Amino acid sequence: MTIETTASPATDLGYVLAKHPDHVATFDLSVGKASVFYPIANAQRCQIALFVDVDVARLAKSTHFRHDDFALSAYVNDRQYTASSLLTVAIGRVFNSALAGSCQTRPDLAERTWPLTIHVPAVGGTPALARQLFEPLGWRVTTGDAAPPVDLTITGQSTVQRALQHLYVLLPVLDDSKHYWVDQTETDKLLRHGADWLPNHPAQALITGRYLAHQRPYIADATARLLADDSAPTNSCQTLTTPSLATTRYETIVAQLKALGASTVVDMGCGEGHLITALLADPQFTRVIGADVSPTALSHAEAALARLPERQQQRATLLQSSVVYRDARLAGFDAIVLAEVIEHVDADRLPALAQSIFGAAKPQHVIITTPNVEYNATFATLTANNTRHIDHRFEWTRAQFAQWVDAVCAQFGYTAKFDGIGPVDPQLGAPTQMAVFSRSTGGAE
């Protein structure tokens, strides 16, 4: 596989991938060796190559890898010649920091959008499948005529991290085979590398099924976790350089909390812990509670916290709690956040929600986000009366949301300001609407 850029200076790509153009780097893998070198490296053009030399004998003997049913399948196969899950293992091993979105020597380059051309000379699948997988993500796809294998070239503007994430997930999907046993960790990998783009990919079901080797329990788990991010219809896809609405929402909430001076925060309905991890990355937030009614969601949030540095984990606590019942453990915090929560609550339970949050817990600030139903008109895949997610009990217009917020403020002694999150349509507003409450004086208890 080669990754090439014509950015200026092009050799800055070496900083992001953490590999020096003057050296050939070799890495031991469980099934052979991976080598990294630069066929071209100058200020105008830089190309880095990743070459995986598969040791077929070692692959055959490995108990971690699975083979087809016929007797000589461990030795008679195309694993040495076509890109597969073996190449993704090498990507994770060799480019681990870039895949994680970090660059120690030049942190600014990790966020940079690069003109990239990626060539994988032999992949599984068909040209049509390659286009189906990569084109919705904004890549321009070129393939040879033969299939399989396919001579694949993708070109586009992307961060290096996002490009590697797409390859990491989609190369095994093209091959439709994992050459090691799939377990729960594969679901976590899929969510980790696909969270920003997979929920809205039109081939989400195909990708999930193939990546998880058609194992139904893992597919069901991954699908449920993907649907938990219900920012937009699942067949509306983000482009290469467009951050997901969920990512923008988390960033906006963190910025609001910082501006409010909050240091102790409850994420009510925390799900898998995306907002929690974003808060823990900032030392301003000294105590963070993640609360959810679902034990499954909390187990995934716990797994997400386990990947953080210990000093961040020590500032977090997970609690099972319902937003419609009073919970004394949630009292006394600077802020409580309900991000995309209220629309999952039956309308007749909203007074109980308001009482538990504003009447019992009484934080200094509350941030609530919810879909703006008016913006749904921009989603071609949504018909009239459809909501963005099957579990939404309602979706409000901006006027309906403002009416509810004003009533809560009057009852419990808060003031509120409104804002939108995401791209703004002049007539329809933003896809997500947000209210930021601050406690004043007076109001019913």
Task: Provide a descriptive summary of the structure in words.
The protein has 445 residues and is α/β, with parallel strands linked by helices. It folds into 2 domains: 2-227, c-terminal autoproteolytic domain of nucleoporin nup98 (2-Layer Sandwich), CATH 3.30.1610; 245-439, Vaccinia Virus protein VP39 (Rossmann fold, 3-Layer(aba) Sandwich), CATH 3.40.50.150. 34% of the residues lie in helices and 21% in strands. It is built from 16 helices and 14 strands. The chain has helices at residues 13-17, 56-61, 85-94, 96-99, 107-110, 127-134, 160-175, 184-194, 204-211, 216-227, 245-260, 274-280, 295-306, 310-313, 350-361, 398-412, and strands at residues 2-5, 25-29, 32-41, 46-54, 114-123, 140-143, 150-158, 264-268, 287-292, 316-320, 335-339, 365-371, 414-421, 432-439. The strands form 2 sheets. It has a 7-stranded antiparallel β-sheet. A hairpin with a 4-residue loop joins strand 3 and strand 4 (46-54). Helix 7 (160-175) packs across helix 9 (204-211), helix 8 runs parallel beside helix 10 and helix 11 (245-260) packs across helix 12 (274-280). It starts with a strand and ends in a 6-residue tail after the last strand. Residues 69-76 have low confidence and may be disordered.
| Biggest beta sheet attributes | 7 strands, antiparallel
Helix content: 25-40%
The counted number of beta strands is 14
Question: Could you state the order of secondary-structure elements as H and E?
Answer: EHEEEHHHHEHEEHHHHHEHEHHEEHEHEE
* Beta-strand content bin: 15-25%
The backbone outline, from C-alpha atoms, is: elongated
Number of helices: 16
Radius of gyration using CA atoms only: 24 Å
Q: Looking at CATH, which topology of the largest domain would you report?
A: c-terminal autoproteolytic domain of nucleoporin nup98
